[in-house]
Known about the structure:
This protein is mainly alpha-helical. 78% of the residues lie in helices and 0% in strands. The radius of gyration is 11 Å and the shape is globular.
Amino acid sequence: xxxxxxxxxxxxxxxxxxPEQQVVERLKEYFPALTLVERERxxxxxxxxxxxxxxxxx
Length: 58
């Protein structure tokens, strides 16, 4: 489940170009059991992965 949540957050950030706060809110639609703190943590982790991958490709 963790990978699924992280994948959805990364997709929304990278492919949909949604701002972090909007992704936090959107995750609630897909994973209603997650708390705000959990959603924020997943978005931060996804943001780090997306931007680390971008830097690695330079």
